[in-house]
Design goal:
By secondary structure, this protein is α+β, with helices and mostly antiparallel strands. It folds into 2 domains: about 5-210 and about 320-405, Aminopeptidase; about 210-320, 2-Layer Sandwich (Alpha-Beta Plaits), CATH 3.30.70.360. It contains 9 helices and 17 strands. The protein has an 8-stranded mixed sheet, sandwiched between helices. Helix 1 packs antiparallel against helix 3 and helix 7 (about 335-345) crosses helix 9 (about 390-405).
Length: about 400
């Protein structure tokens, strides 16, 4: 098996699924397990300063081969999505892919269909990797970890290649919005950074959604249903009315694409006395988040006017901001990545992310951090997959990127 596939399969078998609301950092013990393994493997490669800190963040340095060049950081995250199980992942290799649908053996109802994944037609002859269908695969973001590790190994095997200092950093809990909570930029010591957390191949992403999280708390009145007439206020019914007042054909992820934002109800809990609705607010234009917040507050006010005994509270928490807003601090970051992809024999594309990465928050903190493709497909899903070709392309891009910055 190709070394990069060996690495990838080794990493995905470790359960690092993030757990929102766990009260610990990192949110799951498996992230500690993978962090310790990464330190061990980095030291085996020869990076003696490799270490894991009290927050399970892994850092190491690839020494420069030429002096006086900017320090660059490469980042990936250890955790996988909380949306689908990451326990007992069994990676399946589909060698020399000949086309057609792939039935996943652990759950034959999970079928990777060409009709739903037309890009599969461009992977004929490649080695595809899926889970067995009972879990996600974990290419998001263990593909990025494997790519970084193989690029580091390549540079260390070839000291004749010119490059400046390279900082490796593996973060935790990116999937639940806490990936860089404990990243110390002074300790990282980089002038520019790249996250390896992108879809497919050949893409440089330097624009993300700006994002907030909103919680709508609906307080009703509970009485015994036998004596409820004129007394009970059912928070569940009010929640239904609240959701019914949202736009149906706009501002919803199932009806938007490209640069269109959305207001996405993604969680609900409670009963007759109280219901809590969780919303994701997303827009490429940061100021539009205030308009989305105002929409929720207007609906709340309308319902409370209709039912004065109810109380509806809307609280909004900042998550991250469009990385494009801070990319001007290092104008070479994107052009150099595009050039590295050209040198790797690819046709690069600059695109936007309908989501966020650690790079969005790092850029806001003052460290410009575009996102690079690393072979992710169908993330957060039992139909997640990657390919050997994508992993090798991403590795070569990093090798070229190190040299571009040195030259």
């Amino acid at each position: 098996m190709q070394p990069i596939l060996e690495r990838f399969c080794r990493y995905v078998r470790i359960d690092t699924q993030a757990r929102d609301g766990s009260g610990t950092y990192p949110s799951s013990p498996g992230q500690w397990d993978l962090a310790r393994l990464m330190v061990q493997e980095l030291k085996e490669l020869g990076l003696e300063d490799a270490h894991v800190d009290d927050h399970a963040l892994v850092m190491a340095t690839v020494p420069a081969t030429v002096p006086g060049k900017p320090t660059m950081a490469w980042l990936a995250h250890l955790d996988t999505s909380p949306e689908y199980s990451g326990k007992n992942v069994q990676p399946i290799l589909h060698e020399n892919y000949a086309g057609g649908d792939l039935v996943l053996p652990g759950d034959p109802t999970q079928v990777l269909r060409v009709a739903e994944n037309p890009e599969l037609a461009t992977y004929l002859g490649d080695t595809l990797v899926t889970s067995d269908g009972t879990t996600l695969l974990g290419a998001d973001n263990k593909a990025g970890i494997a790519v970084i590790m193989e690029a580091v190994a390549h540079l260390l095997r070839h000291p004749e290649l010119p490059h400046g200092p390279i900082r490796v950093c593996f973060t935790c809990d990116e999937e639940i919005g806490h990936g860089v909570d404990h990243v110390d930029l002074k300790k990282l010591g980089a002038q520019v950074a790249y996250t390896l957390d992108g879809m497919g191949h050949s893409e440089v992403e330097a624009e993300t959604f700006s994002a907030d999280k909103a919680m709508v708390t609906i307080q009703g009145v509970l009485t015994h249903p036998s004596v409820a007439k004129g007394k009970m206020v059912n928070a569940i019914k009010l929640a239904g009315q609240f959701l019914d007042r949202l736009p149906r054909q706009t501002l919803a992820p199932e009806h938007t694409a490209g640069r269109e934002g959305f207001v996405h109800p993604c969680g609900i809990e409670g009963g007759v006395p109280q219901v809590r609705l969780l919303f994701l607010l997303r827009s490429f234009i940061t100021a539009e988040l205030r308009e989305q917040e105002a929409l929720l507050r207007d609906i709340a006010a309308e319902l409370m006017q209709q039912e004065p005994r109810a109380k509806i509270d809307v609280t909004v928490e900042k998550q991250y901001r469009n990385m494009a807003d801070g990319m001007g601090k290092e104008p070479r970051a994107v052009p150099y990545a595009l050039e590295a992809m050209k040198r790797a024999g690819l046709t690069p594309r600059q695109s936007s992310i309908r989501g966020g990465t650690d790079g969005a928050r790092l850029t806001e903190m003052g460290l410009p951090t575009p996102n690079l493709s690393t072979g992710e497909h169908n993330p957060h899903s039992p139909l997640e997959w990657t390919s050997l070709g994508d992993l090798l392309k991403a590795k070569q891009v990093l090798v070229e990127l190190a040299q571009v910055w040195a030259q």
